[in-house]
Design goal:
CATH architecture of the largest domain: 3-Layer(aba) Sandwich
Oligomer: single chain
Strand order of the largest sheet: 3-6-7-2-8-1-9-10-11
Strand content: 25-35%
Helix content: 25-40%
Bound molecules: iron/sulfur cluster
Number of domains: 2
Radius of gyration: 22 Å
Length: about 290
């Protein structure tokens, strides 16, 4: 199995649109994972059919037993996250602010505080026309998205380990969810765009990826919106010996496809579809080589 993550240094580059199109175009059996758990929207363009879901418990949260509490205020005074509130004559923990450090439990003189698992999301296992999709929903305001990404990847690998390709829609940025996404993958496709922040964030995400040693590929979306910056991206890829596998033009067909909730490649012929088909063919060739040389 080849594990490929589609990522981007910043949001809004068209990463999910390209992942959805690749899920249609890349050959072989595949399993999909949406690791952009903070804004999971791959399901909006590939219409999965839910098979089952299970709760996800992230970090623990403090819970104060109001009967045992003697209202000494120690927990409130020691909580550095201002997560202990005085509500209706009793101390309560605000789970949105609680960071699970357990300091309150240690300072409580009467052991009225316990650390309890908190459900911070759910993991969904669905069926699509191209294979299974593992995706997730993080409770708004909940942390630990890196842990949830790890859980999503684990479920996909365990359920569909015989597949040819594990295709991941990764998160934007360079934080914990990205690191959790790219650890253990064979290749990443970084989707960028010709803007100052696009190039800046491309460099940042490549720096992070280098630590994990996957093969790195780059695709430039909407490349025709700023030819000068696209040239800068190409030069950067050249200097860094990164394979540029695709350039996709700005195309209203993409906007229409997103509105219709389908991959652009399902919407018929268009300049974007044609470019993504070329991108998929190049990527297929590179991934086959990668597989043969392992
Ligand atoms: S576990 Fe830490 S963050 Fe949460 S309420 Fe206790 S002291 Fe505050
Ligand atoms: S430290 Fe314990 S006893 Fe004191 S207010 Fe907090 S929960 Fe209540």
């Amino acid at each position: 199995m080849i594990r490929l993550a589609v990522i981007s240094g910043k949001g809004g580059t068209g990463k999910t649109m390209i992942t959805a199109a690749l899920s249609r175009l890349l050959k072989g059996t595949l399993v999909l994972a949406d690791c952009d758990v903070d804004a999971a929207n791959l399901e909006l363009v590939i219409s999965p059919h839910l098979i089952r879901k299970e709760p996800f418990f992230g970090m623990k949260s403090a819970f104060i037993d109001p009967v045992a509490c003697v209202k000494c205020t120690e927990c409130e005074a020691h909580c550095r996250f201002d997560a202990v509130d005085w509500v209706r004559n009793t101390f309560r923990v605000n789970t949105f602010r609680c960071e699970g450090c357990a300091v309150c439990m240690f300072v409580c003189p009467v052991k009225a505080v316990a650390m309890q698992p908190r459900q911070t999301g759910e993991i969904l296992y669905s069926e699509t026309s191209r294979g299974h999709l593992v995706h997730a929903r993080l409770v708004p305001g909940a942390g630990n998205s890196g842990l949830l990404v790890h859980a999503v990847k684990k479920m996909a690998m365990e359920q569909d380990r015989a597949c040819d390709l594990f295709l991941i829609d990764g998160p934007p940025g360079t934080g914990c969810p990205l690191i959790s996404t790219i650890s253990g993958v064979d290749a990443v496709l970084v989707v960028t765009e010709p803007s100052v922040s696009g190039l800046h964030d491309l460099k940042r995400v490549v720096t992070v990826c280098r630590q994990f040693r996957p093969r790195i590929f780059v695709a430039v979306n909407r490349y025709d919106l700023d030819p000068a910056l696209t040239k800068d991206i190409l030069e950067y890829c050249c200097e860094e010996k990164i394979a540029l596998v695709g350039t996709i033009p700005f195309d209203h067909a993409v906007i229409e496809a997103v509105r219709a909730g389908i991959p652009v490649t399902d919407a018929g012929a268009s300049p974007a579809t044609q470019s993504i088909q070329i991108l998929a063919a190049k990527l297929e060739w590179e991934l086959t080589n990668l597989d043969n040389n392992r």
